[in-house]
DNA sequence: CACGCGTGGCA
DNA sequence: TTGCCAAGCGT
């Protein structure tokens, strides 16, 4: 008496048509992305960095502004850290911009400001991983490298009916892609795989009936495409309470520059994680005195602003207060600025929520 | 190698 | 409302 096997039988797929079918679809259905007009190496690279874990629609305005301000490698290599961060403000994953800044300096110094075409040189630059190297080298130079992002992993997991994206399966997937990609159009092939994943072979509701390669797809034949790849269990995200202050003196407020790994180099109002709200104002006053040597008079305590980061949720209680006395003490890098100077600094997101809250309420700085 | 790293959209 | 995830990389 065997166990009933109603698992579908994996079909031996002939992938020799993959490139032809895919590119035929891509030529008719590709979106006209602004960063794919001329496929110049620098343009492609900038877009690939911005597109990491970020949606196309979010990237477009940042990309256009960046290209206007930093049209080439040399302009990036000569830019200040401040102006780089200001152009990246709000886009997230700020180390991308810091790594690109470092890479531009290396390219100016070692490669005469010309983006290297060899895998070994390009892949070693800070912020360039296997995906970005493959994408840039294939799209800008038509080199035969695969670019395997989250979309491509999902498409290939379905084509080959692999539930687990183990290192072994990923190597298998890459070898198949490399074998069957159109070597005359490697950049288009890679982008077509990604576009298919984003627009047709989507995570939740794949449009299998419209898919140009459904006849060579194991997951489609199985009738349960969303079972590939299997979902991975994620860690639950903790929540933390913070207290922060809009500390005023006359028409100015106090801001500080972050020196931690997270949001490094970005500006913020003084804020601190607290364990509970029992001694909220007392904790806040102590924090401000210990950190800046400032005593404050509290005007108003606002209800919490919520903000979600990738790995924790923040409830930020903001206190409106005025500086009463101060002693000379500088632990952090900080600055007193007027309201109209806010646009001169790169703030991280939650500060803009604070500013807009105060604008609505009692903003008379 | 599993985790830290931002933000916005969408179900 | 809350949770999930997106053209990944560094450690």
Task: Work out the helix count.
Answer: 14
Average pLDDT for all residues: 94
Overall outline: elongated
> What's the Cα radius of gyration?
26 Å
Order of helices and strands: HHHHHHHHHHHHEEEEHEEEEH
Judged by helices, strands and strand pairing, the structural class is alpha+beta
Task: Tell me what you see in this structure.
With 365 residues, this protein is α+β, with helices and mostly antiparallel strands. The protein folds into two domains: 15-227, Orthogonal Bundle (Endonuclease III, domain 1), CATH 1.10.340; 239-360, Nucleoside Triphosphate Pyrophosphohydrolase (Alpha-Beta Complex). It has 14 helices and eight strands. It has helices at 18-29, 41-50, 56-69, 73-78, 81-88, 95-111, 119-123, 130-141, 150-159, 167-180, 186-199, 218-222, 280-292, 349-360; strands at 239-249, 252-257, 267-268, 271-274, 294-301, 305-308, 313-326, 334-338. Strands 1, 2, 3, 4, 5, 6, 7 and 8 form an eight-stranded mixed β-sheet that branches. A hairpin with a 2-residue loop joins strand 1 (239-249) and strand 2. Helix 2 (41-50) crosses helix 3. Mean pLDDT is 94; it is low at 1-5. The structure holds a DNA duplex (11 and 11 nucleotides).
């Amino acid at each position: 008496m065997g166990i009933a096997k109603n698992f579908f039988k994996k079909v031996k797929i002939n992938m020799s048509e993959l490139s032809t079918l895919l590119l035929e679809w891509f030529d008719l259905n590709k979106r006209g992305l602004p960063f794919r007009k001329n496929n110049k190496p620098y343009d492609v690279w900038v877009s690939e960095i911005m597109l990491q874990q970020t949606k196309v629609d979010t990237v477009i305005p940042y990309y256009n502004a960046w290209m206007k301000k930093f049209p080439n490698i040399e302009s990036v290599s000569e830019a200040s850290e401040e102006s780089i961060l200001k152009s990246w403000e709000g886009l997230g994953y700020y180390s991308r911009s810091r790594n690109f800044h470092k890479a531009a300096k290396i390219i100016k110094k070692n490669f005469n400001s010309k983006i290297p075409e060899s895998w070994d040189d390009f892949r070693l630059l800070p912020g360039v991983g296997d995906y970005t190297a493959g994408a840039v080298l294939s799209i800008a130079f038509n080199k035969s490298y695969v670019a395997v992002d989250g979309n491509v992993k999902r498409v290939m997991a379905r084509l080959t009916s692999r539930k687990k994206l183990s290192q072994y399966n990923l190597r298998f997937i890459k070898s198949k892609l490399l074998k069957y990609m159109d070597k005359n159009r490697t950049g288009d092939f890679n982008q077509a795989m990604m576009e298919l994943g984003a627009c047709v072979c989507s995570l939740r509701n794949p449009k299998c009936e419209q898919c140009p390669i459904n006849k060579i797809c194991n997951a489609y034949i199985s009738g349960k495409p969303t079972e590939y790849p299997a979902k991975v269990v994620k860690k639950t995200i903790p929540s933390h309470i913070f207290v922060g202050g809009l500390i005023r003196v006359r028409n100015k407020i106090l801001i500080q520059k972050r020196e931690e790994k997270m949001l490094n180099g970005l500006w913020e109002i003084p804020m601190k994680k607290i364990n509970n709200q029992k001694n909220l104002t007392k904790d806040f006053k102590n924090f401000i005195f210990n950190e800046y040597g400032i005593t404050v008079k509290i005007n108003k305590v606002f209800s919490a602003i919520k903000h979600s980061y990738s790995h924790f949720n923040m409830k930020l209680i903001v206190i409106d207060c005025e500086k009463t006395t101060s002693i000379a003490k500088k632990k952090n890098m900080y600055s007193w600025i007027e309201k109209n100077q806010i646009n001169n600094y790169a703030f991280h997101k939650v500060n803009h929520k604070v500013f807009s809250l105060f604008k609505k309420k009692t903003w008379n700085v």
